[in-house]
Amino acid sequence: RDIFINNEWHNSVSGKKFPVFNPATEEKICEVEEGDKEDIDKAVKAARQAFQIGSPWRTMNASERGRLIYKLADLIERDRLLLATMESINGGKLFSNSYTLDLGGCVATLRYCAAYLSTNDCVFYFPDGNFFGYTRHEPIGVCGQIIPWNFPLFMFIWKIGPALCCGNTVVVKPAEQTPLTALHVASLIQEAGFPPGVVNIVPGYGPTAGAAISSHMDIDKVAFTGSTEVGKMIKEAAGKSNLKRVTLELGGKSPFIVFADSDLDSAVEVAHQALFYHQGQCCIAASRLFVEESIYDEFVRRSVERAKKYVLGNPLTPGVSQGPQIDKKQYEKILDLIESGKKEGAKLECGGGPWGNKGFFIQPTVFSNVTDEMRIAKEEIFGPVQQIMKFKSLDDVIKRANNTHYGLAAGIFTKDIDKAITVSSALQAGTVWVNCYSVVSPQCPFGGFKMSGNGRELGEYGLQEYTEVKMVTMKISQKNS
Amino acid sequence: EGRGVPGNTGGWPGSPGRAGDIFINNEWHESKSGKKFATYNPSTLEKICEVEEGDKLDVDKAVEAAHAAFQRGSPWRRLDALGRGWLLHQLADLVERDRAILATLETMDTGKPFLHAFFIDLEGCIKTLRYFAGWADKIQGRTIPTDDNVVCFTRHEPIGVCGAITPWNFPLLMLVWKLAPALCCGNTIVVKPAEQTPLTALYLGSLIKEVGFPPGVVNIVPGFGPTVGAAISSHPHISKIAFTGSTEVGKLVKEAASRSNLKRVTLELGGKNPCIVCADADLDLAVECAHQGVFFNQGQCCTAASRVFVEEQIYPEFVRRSVEYAKKRPIGDPFDIRTEQGPQIDQKQFDKILDLIESGKKEGAKLECGGSAMEDRGLFIKPTVFSEVTDTMRIAKEEIFGPVQPILKFKNIEEVIKRANSLEYGLTAAVFTKNLDKALKLASALESGTVWINCYNAIYAQAPFGGFKMSGNGREL
Q1: Model ipTM?
Q2: Residue A477 — very low, low, confident or very high, per pLDDT cuts 50/70/90?
Q3: Scanning every residue of chain B, which has its alpha carbon at the shortest distance from the alpha carbon of A406?
Q4: Do A461 and B154 touch (CB under 8 A)?
Q5: What is the pLDDT of residue B2?
Q6: pLDDT, tens only, B215-265
Q7: What secondary structure letter does DSSP report for B411?
Q8: In the UniProt entry, which residues are flagged as the active site (chain A) (predicted)?
């Protein structure tokens, strides 16, 4: 029984189940109850009940909420090995990455959120006239949260951490490809002692359970991480239904700009990780690599050398450095984009096709002499395919880097301070990394410009997105400053 | 007629040197289609003048100008933050200089009493401009202590080209609410004023040019919702849209934003705001505040106190005093300084209000006074009070936007909290009580973006304003 509502486990209302696979072997791991609209309705009812004024959750001291979130962090740390293994098997993720980065990130994020509570001040206002005014930063209410498959547990924590910290209740739909770690954490939520109904989890599909969340008349906010295409549908459904608040973390085609004066070895390695990490399945993947003309050829040579060093295989096996893509649909989409690169005239430096006879493996692929109008330079690939492009001038590369409707992240490699500040200020991206990449930390707000998203997650800014501001203005007989 | 007025550089439609009414790049243009539309004085029902009617092509031109003004390296982008603030201060000065003209234009175009336009609307405009002028060089990012050997800081950048769609109930004030914060933060803007009330927005255009904002920073395209408004909501090069108006249209705006380019959306929509009067309240204060709260601006406020909940013990006395107030409310020519209530904005609103009044009668509320239009007076409606109103009646659920006060009865705090929160709206609420515990409890429990305690319509540039639930998304001020 896999639908978690009111701290209890339920079967799906329809009785349906769906299979969950291991992308390295294509074998079925198990079956999971398949939630649909009726299950979402049940979950929302529970979440709404838990949110009532006077409920255990609403009357709980903020410090106690923080203590529960800390406890959850401790329990995740206790079960770190189990969760990392589950995440590797279900997500095709290298075990070493699951254990250190995903699980490490989960624990750090929860601890950040837990401590935020004692620092969340309200502000006193000084309206004209004899009034006393203050704002309350209230929880929004019932939040629907839709999680992706690329960092299943980590993205789950990014969503529930801030929401719970600010006093909301949640209804979560994990990705249908990767529901397992969320379900295990549900049992930890129960063990930590969160009141029933505060966290509810309904596994299922986008068009059914996901759509039910976006258009639910009793959900006050929806938070989604996934593709830009689906993000638009979610915001539209939110507008059509009850104007629920919307935050979106969507796709990217992030530029990585290497100037001739950078530390070349460092730039090559960081650019490489920035693209190939987790088989290229990151929203921040540095999938447009702009290299200054004078160092271009050497950069390409070293990047190809680096890409050829991969050992593909089962992500649980030590020594394996690249796992499979998540499923057939992604696998086929990436291969199609690789073909387009070849057809449209990019130079295939290495890789360029599938690997192995089982599992969704693709060879690490590098294209050089890529130009801006090619599909591989414009569309999000979400696979192990690196595009290396040439640039001449600073103004030119800024224009080209910004010439996309995405705007999630960007990287700049240079030793020159003026270049660093000029370019980082000019790039239309929610995060700009200078001489580094993928530095993601719970203290830092993360989110997209333009069509890479709406709103921010984490950091003080992200936590504000989980509050609704109420201004209280009281008449007093005489004001003194 | 606008000529010979000190400092005026083409504020009136038809002024010398003014080639049209569409303000783009600090110049006046005719509409691409050649069409015009009329704007009326709702008090006399006469046409004031004709105004160029913008459409999608004019919006495209405006967005192009706003986009160019926002380019990296442009005069606006390179201006010091303090410089932006200084321009806003100067705009406040010019609005103050031309206060009487603007108040007159506003009164002619909306039917609101001249003294309200002069002392409330214009006062709010000047103060709001000055408040945001002061913020311009205080938009600060943060340095953040992250792990590892990195320096991490945030920049609070302008979003880009912002679209603003403003309503007809406080035309100039709502325009300033949109313009001031947007410009303060370094954005450029394309505005569509309400088709019923474009005049003060157009006058402001001439002041913006006079102050010396760079061309393209502010652009104004008068026109209608389904044409200009829709073009703004779905424009691929507008990065944010801010809309004040009905919840129904707010939903369309958010949908269009989603379908086009996921532009950021803030909405200030309708309300059905509870005004809760406890038995221990200062009764005179409560009656007066509740009265002004619902009847101000002919009832045409998103903050209108359109559900007055009165505790049982004081109910009959409260109703009696409210009726007395309502019967005394001076209705008449907005330019008469004794007038407190002018006409409704147009026939459509007028008809809708009368329909809701009829529903009140039919559904069994007790009509205490008013209840119909003024005879032979165009769009004027008598101040109307209903008592014995219950929650299921249309007048207790639907936004009326007219001079109609429904008074409901309640027994205890728990009950009134539930009833007050039972609608999809959540803009404002008011509480009248002398008891500290009741005041704070109600303030916490009411699902409203603003809660007033022992006062009403206490709205200031310093205080964030906006709705819970379907009364809006986001905050202004």
Answers
A1: 0.83
A2: confident
A3: B261
A4: yes
A5: 41
A6: 999 999 999 999 999 999 999 999 999 999 999 999 999 999 999 999 999
A7: S
A8: 249
Q: How many CB atoms lie within 10 A of CB B83?
A: 14
B254/chain A closest Cα distance in angstroms: 5
CA distance B354 to chain A (A): 28
- Minimal C-alpha gap between A189 and chain B (Å): 27
Task: Name which of A234, A454, A460 is nearest B264 (Cβ-Cβ).
Answer: A454
- For residue A469, the chain B residues in CB contact (below 8 A) are 449, 464, 466, 475
- Does B458 touch chain A if contact means CB atoms closer than 8 Å? yes
- pTM over 0.80, yes/no: yes
pLDDT tens track for A220-268: 999 999 999 999 999 999 999 999 999 999 999 999 999 999 999 999 9
pLDDT of residue A133: 87
Active site residue B268: yes
Q: Best residue in A215, A475, A477 to probe B by mutation, most B CBs within 10 Å?
A: A475
